[in-house]
Structure formats: structure tokens, C-alpha cells
Specification:
Blueprint: E1 3-9, E2 12-18, E3 23-28, E4 42-43, H1 48-61, H2 78-88, E5 96-97, H3 98-104, H4 111-119, E6 132-133, H5 146-157
Parallel strand pairs: 1-4, 5-6
Antiparallel strand pairs: 1-2, 2-3
């Protein structure tokens, strides 16, 4: 069974999707690979993983949370899971390149494939793919849009205007 609810973030509405035991998706409206709510899904704002996700996201956007604790149940290939695991290990406020991400996941030399897996990350913000940047440090490849990526990195820097000109 899939459960869903919506969260109004400072950067737009988000669809939260959960299984019986954990969070399986967090998507900004309009982002690439945003799923359609299926007829079989149940709107359940009181479902424990959805309540926890809402609370943790509010704490993150409020500057009170740097690490998410919710159980995660994303669907993906073994390669995608390896990449997402390494994305989740990137510390709050840090960034790494797609090449470094591939290397950390055990796939050195596969930066493009790591980028494709990053783009398919179903857990925006929770698995912080906004912390992955191009080889020259540029802000590239965010399914939620580069303006959101810039805003999330600015939030984590503690200096809201840091990236406004980037």
C-alpha cells in the first residue's frame, strides 16, 4: 500500500509518499520524474511516516535539523541504491562532485551514471542530491530546478544570499 500527503515548503508544494514502514518519495511540484498519485494510493496525513517526514522537513527548513532520521523505502536498482546511500552521507552544508560521488559508491569513472541515478533520487532533500555539483563546482542537474538547488545550498550555508549571484 502507498500513502501520500502534501507538504507546503518554502520552495513550493511537495508530494510525500510512504509505504507501511517508511518514506518512499518526496517530490517538488513540477520536478522531473514526479509521479502521479495513483487511484490505489491512500491520502493519509496521519500515517506515521508521513507525519514524521512533515515534522523533519519543517525542522530542516526552520534551520533546526541537519540530518533526517525517518526510515526510507525508495524503489530503485542496486546501483541507484549505492549512489543514494553515498548522497545521504554527504554532510549538511558540504558539496561533492558527481565524479567523487561515483568514486565513493565504488564506481570510479562513472560520473555520468552517478548523475543519472542522482536525477532519479525519489527522496528530494531527505537524500540531499542538491549537495552534488559539477566537476567545476557549478550547480548542475537538479530535478527540482536549479533555483531550488541554489536556495537549499544557501539555507545550509547559513548565508541566504551566498549563492544568489551564482
Amino acid at each position: 500500500m502507498r500513502y501520500y500527503d502534501f507538504y507546503e515548503s518554502p520552495h513550493g508544494r511537495m508530494l510525500l509518499v510512504a509505504t507501511d514502514v517508511g518514506l518512499s518519495g518526496v517530490y517538488f511540484d513540477g520536478q522531473k520524474y514526479h509521479p502521479q498519485v495513483a487511484a490505489a494510493w491512500r491520502h493519509a496525513p496521519g500515517h506515521a511516516p508521513l507525519r514524521q517526514a512533515t515534522r523533519e522537513l519543517a525542522e530542516y527548513f526552520g534551520g533546526k535539523r541537519k540530518r533526517f532520521e525517518i526510515a526510507l523505502t525508495p524503489a530503485g536498482t542496486p546501483f541507484q541504491h549505492a549512489i543514494w546511500k553515498e548522497i545521504a552521507a554527504v554532510a549538511f552544508g558540504d558539496t561533492i562532485t558527481y565524479g567523487e560521488l561515483a568514486k565513493r559508491a565504488g564506481y570510479a569513472g562513472h560520473a555520468r551514471a552517478a548523475g543519472a541515478a542522482t536525477g532519479r533520487n525519489p527522496l528530494t532533500i531527505i537524500v540531499p542530491c542538491h549537495r552534488i555539483v559539477g566537476s567545476d563546482g557549478s550547480l548542475t542537474g537538479y530535478a527540482g530546478g536549479l533555483e531550488r538547488k541554489r536556495a537549499l545550498l544557501a539555507l545550509e550555508s547559513g548565508i541566504p544570499d551566498l549563492l544568489s549571484a551564482a
